[in-house]
Write a structure and sequence with these properties.
388 residues
Length: 388
């Protein structure tokens, strides 16, 4: 745990304290931010209070009295629930505005981990509970220089694999044929050669299957890929080493001489919506202006809506990227949630609008890395449908 950094972040936001709480490992964020072992056997409630100034405080059950010993601060213990309430009230006494893993109206479910009863208890002491969302992003989503290098290393490998996968599709369709699952497994083998790992296998979707945003071919369910087919590849992976960061992209291609006019039209709308999102982020960072995730989603969604495809863009514009492919920074979302978390420097996220029609779907995904006064697309950018 970096106590000085946590206290500085609280001071910047005018929060009096950050209250961490867990029972039966309900809040994995707390363990990561505080540096606690996730293997602890937690059968009783514990609380850890980090004030913006001064010494932290611990409250633990006597049965598990040593659980927070690795952390600095004074320790209080309880057994009875009445004792817990009184001790917690005393611990919170000097503080008014308390950050917790909470999101108003559960708008950010990734953050909203504290149960309603515990929130009621803290509020009963006269405390104002605010969301820890921006604090969590500061300690969960900000990347080190080494992690950024790992993202670029993954980029180099995944970009090579993606290009080669389209070439392999073309070769196979001209020489006996292939299918979605076979190409998914080909990509998985390429990952092994490049020392890449992934949480889930890549998406290979052809024609109508490309219109299913989370389609996954299997050995039992896999469409053939033939001449005249439209193909979507969604590929994400990271280097096989500790704290490595993912690279996550989606490209589309056509098997044959040229895609149809409908394919081109939909692709161009998605491409321009993607670029509108990228420019929105870049403009804000170059101007030193704060920007939240929902604003990026609005930029891409407004473009697609204006083109008449609102009902076919069924997911958020993008997600935070870190050591997990879906990390705990701001998401580019004003659809599924209204993500008001600030996009902060040294974080990574995707911009990936899509239009999903019954006969085919287009998604175009790039990754953005932010710096203090700039934001960059970290990999290759698809400008036209790949023909194979």
């Amino acid at each position: 745990m970096d106590l000085a950094a946590i206290q500085a972040a609280l001071h910047e936001r005018n929060f009096d304290a950050w209250l961490f709480y867990d029972h039966h490992h309900r809040d994995p964020i707390a363990y990561r931010v505080l540096g606690l072992s996730p293997s602890l056997m937690v059968t009783r409630r514990w609380f850890y209070l980090v004030p913006a100034q001064g010494e932290p405080r611990k409250l633990v059950h006597r049965v598990e009295a040593g659980h927070l010993d690795p952390l600095p601060g004074r320790k209080d213990q309880y057994s009875a629930w009445q004792e817990l309430w009184e001790s917690l009230k005393t611990m919170l006494g000097p503080y008014s505005t308390i950050a917790m893993q909470y999101s108003p109206n559960n708008l950010i479910p990734y953050i909203s981990l504290v149960d309603a009863g515990t929130l009621e208890l803290v509020r009963s002491f006269g405390k104002n509970i605010v969301s820890s969302g921006d604090l969590v992003a500061r300690f969960e989503a900000v990347l080190s220089e080494e992690q950024i290098r790992s993202h670029f290393a993954a980029r180099d490998a995944v970009d090579r694999i993606t290009e080669a996968a389209f070439q392999e599709i073309g070769l196979r369709t001209r020489n006996g044929g292939t299918n979605e699952f076979a190409m998914q497994q080909w990509i998985a083998e390429a990952f092994k050669r490049e020392d890449l790992v992934t949480e889930d296998p890549p998406i290979v979707g052809v024609n109508a299957n490309s219109g299913d945003p989370h389609y996954e071919p299997t050995a039992e369910r896999s469409a053939p890929i033939r001449q005249g087919d439209f193909v979507l590849l969604d590929i994400w992976a990271k280097k096989n080493k500790p704290d490595a960061v993912y690279y996550d992209i989606t490209w589309t291609g056509f098997v044959g001489q040229a895609p149809s006019e409908k394919h081109r039209q939909v692709f161009e709308i998605v491409r321009e919506a993607r670029d509108a999102g990228v420019k929105t982020v870049q403009a804000a960072f170059s101007q030193g202006r704060k920007i939240a995730g929902w604003e990026v989603d609005k930029a891409t969604r407004d473009y697609i809506n204006a083109a008449g495809y609102a009902r076919y863009f069924v997911h958020r514009t993008g997600h935070s990227i870190g050591t997990s492919v879906h990390a705990n920074g701001a998401n580019m979302d004003n659809l599924e949630t209204r993500d008001e978390r600030e996009i902060i420097p040294n974080t990574c996220f995707s911009i990936e609008p899509g239009i999903y029609l019954p006969e085919f779907g287009v998604r175009s995904e790039v990754n953005i890395l932010t710096r203090n006064r700039s934001a960059e697309v970290t990999g290759r950018v698809q400008r036209e449908i790949v023909t194979v």
